[in-house]
Each structure stands twice: as C-alpha cells, then as structure tokens.
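Example noted here:
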Amino acid sequence: MRVLGIETSCDETACAVVVDGRDVISNVVCSQVGDHAKYGGVFPELASRRQIEEIVAVYEGALGQASLDLKDIDVVAVTFGPGLVGSLLVGVNFAKALAFYSGIPLVAVDHIKGHIASNYITHRDLEPPFLCLTVSGGHTQIVHVLSYEKCEIIGSSRDDAAGEAFDKVGRALGLGYPAGVKIDLLAREGDSERYKFPHPKVKGAEFDFSFSGLKTAVINMLHNTRQSGGEVNVQDVAASFQSTVVSILLERLIGAARKWGCSRLCLAGGVSANSELRERASLECANYGFELFYPASEYCGDNAAMIASEGYYEFMLGNLAGFDLNP
C-alpha cells in the first residue's frame, strides 16, 4: 500500500511516499532554517506563507522521486497537530483537496505519533509495545506505545521542551538559530564537569520534565560572568549544559522503563540525533539489558516519511478522516 505523507506542522514543508509503513520510496523536505535564523526562531506567519508557496513543488517532487502519479497513491496522510496552526492549515487543506479531487482515503496523523513511527522506517522488525522518548524543539515526552493505536503518555514537559532550551541557551552563547547541532559539536571539545547546573524535578510527577529553570540558570551564569568581567568558555558551557540535559532525559526514561517493566526503548524527534544522547542511552540500555532503537538521522527532524508510516497503520486500523478535518 502506497501512502502519501504530508507534513507542515512547523517550518518544514515535506511530502513523502512510503510503502506498507516501512519502505520509503521518496522523501522531500523543504527547510526554511535560513529564513528564520535572523529572528532567532520560527516566525509563524512567515512559515505558513512560505509553505503555501512551496507545497505544490514539494508534492510534485515526492511523486516524481517515486516515479508515481496521484492515481498510484492509496492513502493520503497528513499531520493535523500539534504544531503551528497556520502551518498545519496549509498541509491539512492541501491534503483534503487531493483526497476530494481523487477520491483517495484521507488519514489524520498526530505529529508525535509520527515521530515515534520514524523508528519503524529504520528498524523494520520493531513492533509495539515499547517505551519512546520523543524529544524535540516543541515536545519532550515519554510515551508508552502499547500498540499501533494505543499510546499512554507517562511524562511530559511542564514548560520548555529540551530542544527549545538548546536553542535559547545557544542564543545566549551567540550561536544563532538553530543551536542544537552547534552545541553538540562544541560539547565534544569541552569539559562537561566545568559548570554545575541544576537538575529540575516536578514535585509529584517523577517522569515529567522542566527545562525552563535549567535554561535560566545557564543564562544567568553567562550574564553574571560577563558583567563581572569574567571569561566564558563556550565549549565548557556547551558540554556542561548538554550533559545536564542528557542526564535528565535518561534518568526519567530509564526510571520509567524499570517501573513499567519495558525492555525495548526508543528515541525520536529532532534531539534524538544528538550524539551524546545516543551514546549515553546506548550505554545505559546495555547496563540494564534493554534494547535501544533510534531513527536514522534523516528521520529525526520533521519529515513526511514518518507521517506516511504512521498513516499506514492508522488506515489499517480504520481511522479515516472526513473533509471536516481541522488542525
């Protein structure tokens, strides 16, 4: 079954064709990073306007890369949330128009479930149940994936997501936007023990996350050091901050796995491409006898292949969307 996936939840415009939820035969992503860098983050109005301009070319590119026509597509799957509502409207309306015109079934996909499904593309034999840490610029969650249909959120961020904290600390360090990859590279050259940052916890919710206080602690340290004429070692700050974030993420993930008796763990989302997170997660899982899965790097960020993958399973479960679908 050939599923056309459409993803426009933030600033990417993406379309892909995936066969039977696992085989990617095309995956086109048009990024707007350069457009938004000067604002220090995503400018929602600009993002949606660019997506209106890009969506047709990206769609045609995905079909062309797959050597298919619309008549060869069996299902249209589209992200309907969470995300920026203006951007989501572009993808949802385009998908509804395609489905209405062609008579092809329409499926609505949750963006987080799409990130989780990116693991199905990389690991063909992976099936639920498993525990997944989804960590990106907008979301940080531990999800118990009980089946292709049923997911239970065990923990989530109460304020800033981990990726958002990376970008805000990166801005304070003068690294520009986006900062995650830059911090990862700098951290390899720094001393992760140089600076001691807090490990915030949420009272009464042992698996929830809070990165706002950590972000503020780093920024305050930078301001105080600079105002007193001190010198900031950017590599050491990057290493110390990243190490703290990774420790928090893995403390919650491993703790949840032990409590819920899960032996298979997954990473997903943009931050799952972080080298330290992957390395330390691999060591922790080996220590506890857990299996660890994470997507290939090209499927960590927002893309439409993951939406098409999840869309296949939603269709097989009979979860069809109507033309009244809204973000």
In short: The domain at 128-297 is CATH 3.30.420.40 (Nucleotidyltransferase; domain 5). The two ends are 25 Å apart (CA to CA). The first strand starts at residue 2 and ends at 7. The chain has a mean pLDDT of 95.
